[in-house]
Amino acid sequence: MLKLSLLSLAASGLIAGAALAQDGTDLVQKGAYVARLGDCMACHTAPGGKPYAGGLPIKSDLGTIYATNITPDPDAGIGKYSEADFARALRKGVLPDGSHLYPAMPYPSYAKLSDADVHALYAYLMQAVAPVSTPAPETRLGFPFNQRWGMMFWNTAFGDAVGFAPDPDLTAEENRGKYIVEGAGHCGSCHTPRGIAMQEKAYDGDSAAYLSGGELNGWDVPALRADGSSGAGIAGWSTAEIADYLGKGRNDRAAVGGEMTAVVQHSTGHMSNADLNAVAAYLKTLSPAPAPWTPKPDSAARATTAKLTAATDLSTGARLYIDSCGACHFVNGKGAKDIFPQLDGASVVNADSPTGLIHTILAGAQTPSVERAPSVNLMPGFAARMDDKEVAELASFLRGAWTNDAGAVTADQVAKVRAGLDKAP
Ligand code: HEC
Ligand code: HEC
Ligand code: HEC
């Protein structure tokens, strides 16, 4: 008798964690994984705050928007939301009272989440997240953006929520990657350019604008497709290198920096190997041809190394490199595997836009610590030690050193990135 009633309770989903998702995995565990894919934590948890209690201020062109409390607290959080209410907020940006969310919440991407994933996510948030009764700060934008109904027109014009459509020309694995990238992963929210009303110019791989490079706090976010014209880019990376970058925050060619560090730390670093491979396989389909960028010949690399080794008649940029960078990245620009990334051939060094390189020199960077790669490798920032002109000389040197082949950098470009550093949240 007892056994039977427990079983039926479990079947009706009343015992937390006991219900099974359609594919047989534990529903709450599956929901926790979907929350990782969707990186809900990144915005809905303030630094040092309780998980999912909201409060993170997100700077936008409209003003500061606060992420809300999505714990199951009935008053401060979403405890009163039915699954249908939750699904509508998540995929359409519409709350139970009919008001509209600002697109700082990436619902146009989440519109692509499957019913099964939304179901699991709901179970996870309601059953496994601790309720927090502190309300998140209220978003108060200036007129006319404080008129939430106005977002209805935004939705009609730009954010029209479209469900996921698998591409019949792709393999099952590539379509799984497409589902993650376009949907939960909302990779386009940073990697796709935005239009006049902050809308992403495309929400799926059918459009050439999709993942062709975006902009974030003065950092030109690299394109994830060969025709995105971002210099070296990832078009030349193997599937395994892309998977490593996303799963460990580092690979033989690069180490993650800027806002992407948090994405790896909280989201992609927790993806299963199968999903990492699927994402990498899908990204490869966007770059059927390698990027138009070609490295200079090896003889150029040897010439730079010889010049730095001899250390005579150095340009200002080369001298700054020896003084401040060479100890870790070495005179041959090859760094040390898995510790100091190579600067010779690096995509951040050769990107069309030097903002990522300038940002790294000014602010430094540190690798995320994830299960697959727990060590944190730190690069100090040089904002206090170098002026705009020096950073420009150094960056220009790097973009022409070894096999690197990219344009020179001006002090004005450095000044702009420096100004943006103070504004970043
Ligand atoms: C890039 C930042 C960002 C990410 C990532 C994000 N959200 Fe949000 N979310 C927001 C912001 C900002 C709001 C409030 C928007 C507003 O006030 O109009 C919000 C609002 C919501 C709401 C409405 C709650 C309410 O009653 O106000 C729900 C539900 C929600 N998010 C769930 C999620 C889930 C689940 C995920 C992960 C799959 C997620 N969000 C990921 C930024 C984000
Ligand atoms: C103490 C060692 C150290 C010094 C000194 C150092 N770096 Fe780094 N650098 C690192 C580490 C570690 C990383 C990886 C951190 C990350 O990007 O997550 C890194 C990353 C980078 C990256 C990003 C590489 C990529 O693949 O995205 C660039 C560019 C860079 N450094 C340039 C420089 C320059 C230019 C200097 C001199 C001004 C310098 N570094 C000085 C250790 C150092
Ligand atoms: C919050 C903004 C943001 C989101 C969301 C985001 N990225 Fe990024 N991504 C960046 C930034 C900024 C960089 C540049 C980092 C650097 O150069 O060190 C980057 C770099 C990358 C790179 C390396 C590109 C290169 O040329 O070096 C890959 C690959 C990548 N992202 C994949 C993804 C995938 C896949 C997703 C979705 C699961 C994603 N990103 C979501 C901001 C973001």
TrEMBL record:
<dbReference type="Pfam" id="PF00034">
    <property type="entry name" value="Cytochrom_C"/>
</dbReference>
<dbReference type="InterPro" id="IPR036909">
    <property type="entry name" value="Cyt_c-like_dom_sf"/>
</dbReference>
<feature type="binding site" description="axial binding residue">
    <location>
        <position position="191"/>
    </location>
    <ligand>
        <name>heme c 2</name>
    </ligand>
</feature>
<dbReference type="GO" id="GO:0005506">
    <property type="term" value="F:iron ion binding"/>
</dbReference>
<feature type="binding site" description="covalent">
    <location>
        <position position="40"/>
    </location>
    <ligand>
        <name>heme c 1</name>
    </ligand>
</feature>
<keyword id="KW-0732">Signal</keyword>
<feature type="binding site" description="covalent">
    <location>
        <position position="190"/>
    </location>
    <ligand>
        <name>heme c 2</name>
    </ligand>
</feature>
<feature type="binding site" description="axial binding residue">
    <location>
        <position position="329"/>
    </location>
    <ligand>
        <name>heme c 3</name>
    </ligand>
</feature>
<dbReference type="GO" id="GO:0020037">
    <property type="term" value="F:heme binding"/>
</dbReference>
<feature type="domain" description="Cytochrome c">
    <location>
        <begin position="312"/>
        <end position="402"/>
    </location>
</feature>
<keyword id="KW-0349">Heme</keyword>
<dbReference type="InterPro" id="IPR008168">
    <property type="entry name" value="Cyt_C_IC"/>
</dbReference>
<feature type="signal peptide">
    <location>
        <begin position="1"/>
        <end position="21"/>
    </location>
</feature>
<dbReference type="GO" id="GO:0009055">
    <property type="term" value="F:electron transfer activity"/>
</dbReference>
<feature type="binding site" description="covalent">
    <location>
        <position position="328"/>
    </location>
    <ligand>
        <name>heme c 3</name>
    </ligand>
</feature>
<dbReference type="GO" id="GO:0016614">
    <property type="term" value="F:oxidoreductase activity, acting on CH-OH group of donors"/>
</dbReference>
<keyword id="KW-0479">Metal-binding</keyword>
<feature type="binding site" description="covalent">
    <location>
        <position position="325"/>
    </location>
    <ligand>
        <name>heme c 3</name>
    </ligand>
</feature>
<feature type="binding site" description="covalent">
    <location>
        <position position="43"/>
    </location>
    <ligand>
        <name>heme c 1</name>
    </ligand>
</feature>
<protein>
    <submittedName>
        <fullName>C-type cytochrome</fullName>
    </submittedName>
</protein>
<keyword id="KW-0249">Electron transport</keyword>
<keyword id="KW-0677">Repeat</keyword>
<keyword id="KW-1003">Cell membrane</keyword>
<keyword id="KW-0408">Iron</keyword>
<keyword id="KW-0679">Respiratory chain</keyword>
<dbReference type="InterPro" id="IPR014353">
    <property type="entry name" value="Membr-bd_ADH_cyt_c"/>
</dbReference>
<dbReference type="InterPro" id="IPR051459">
    <property type="entry name" value="Cytochrome_c-type_DH"/>
</dbReference>
<feature type="binding site" description="covalent">
    <location>
        <position position="187"/>
    </location>
    <ligand>
        <name>heme c 2</name>
    </ligand>
</feature>
<keyword id="KW-0472">Membrane</keyword>
<feature type="domain" description="Cytochrome c">
    <location>
        <begin position="172"/>
        <end position="287"/>
    </location>
</feature>
<keyword id="KW-0813">Transport</keyword>
<dbReference type="InterPro" id="IPR009056">
    <property type="entry name" value="Cyt_c-like_dom"/>
</dbReference>
<feature type="domain" description="Cytochrome c">
    <location>
        <begin position="19"/>
        <end position="129"/>
    </location>
</feature>
<feature type="binding site" description="axial binding residue">
    <location>
        <position position="44"/>
    </location>
    <ligand>
        <name>heme c 1</name>
    </ligand>
</feature>
<dbReference type="GO" id="GO:0005886">
    <property type="term" value="C:plasma membrane"/>
</dbReference>
